[in-house]
Amino acid sequence: MERECLLSILIALLCGTTILACGWWPVHDGGGSVRHLERFRWQQIWLPLVPALIVAACLSGWALAEPDPTPEKASILLILASVPFALLLFGRAAIRAVWSLVREEGDVVTATVGLLRPWILFSPYLAKALDDRTIEAALAHERAHARHRDPLRIWLAQLATDLQWPWPQAQKRLALWSFALELARDEEARMSGVDGSDLATAILASARLGRQAILPANAALIGDPSTLEERISRLLEPLPLERPQTHTLTWIAVVVIPVLLGAIGFGSVFGEHIVRTLLELSA
């Protein structure tokens, strides 16, 4: 059997099972500033997928050491067991991710779009409803989205959430992060000199126009309308003092990357025995 074909079957089955087992991970709340909260909730989206990444790394290590074609052959039972995960989990997530990129966006009031090179869309109808200060406030919010490449991050977060379907905790983690993201960009805009009341006025005007498209591939000014009241109340409060920030990639560099490299090494050494045992059990 071709090595890549067997690897795909094993990844679909074992990683799919791991994701399904870990997607229930409960939602935890963080503290500190809104920008710290945004990073914490971003990590919470990805944390349930880390065990599946370790399994995939271990299987990749096995594939690196395994000759092609492999002497083992996957049984019909193993193939049938992997089909639901391949179609309902990975296939569904892939289709939704592609669809979010190709479908029409419709009318937008103001949003940041573009995965690799973000740019800002600003409706002339909104511009007519605002003065220069509120326009600059709205643009400052969208520039903050563009600096952090938030359209790409939103798209990836939606993909990670779809991979954890059908667990409701995954959707909850995405919703909490989306709200924290808007709060963080509001605060960043205010740190650049924008008045909170001007930004609140721009957000309310954008919501009144009522044509805002909320898509996985854009970062919109108003975000989730259900959180509008809390955002406005925060914008009218004094700007909190900035606290020292930690690097967002520290936990990845210190923990995740070494663990994945170790899993690849483990798979290259012990993967053949593990895979052979699994195939014998499914025969």
In words, what does this structure look like?
It is a single chain. The protein is mainly alpha-helical and 283 residues long. It has one domain. It contains eleven helices and three strands. It has a three-stranded antiparallel β-sheet. A hairpin with a 5-residue loop joins strand 1 and strand 2. It is elongated. The model has no long low-confidence stretch (mean pLDDT 86).
Task: Set out the fold topology.
Blueprint: H1 3-22, H2 34-46, H3 50-65, H4 76-102, E1 110-113, E2 119-122, H5 124-129, H6 132-147, H7 150-163, H8 168-191, H9 196-209, E3 218-220, H10 228-235, H11 250-282
Antiparallel strand pairs: 1-2, 1-3
Helix pairs in contact: 1-3, 1-4, 2-8, 3-11, 4-7, 6-8, 6-9, 7-8, 9-10
Give a short synopsis of this structure:
This protein is mainly alpha-helical and 283 residues long. Helices cover 67% and strands 4% of the residues.
Key terms for this structure?
mainly alpha, 3-stranded antiparallel beta sheet, 11 helices, 67% helix
Number of helices: 11
Sum up the overall morphology in one term.
elongated
User: How far from one another are the termini?
Assistant: 15 Å
* Poorly predicted runs: none
Number of strands: 3
Main β sheet profile: 3 strands, antiparallel
If you compute it from the alpha carbons, what radius of gyration comes out, rounded to the nearest whole angstrom?
Answer: 23 Å
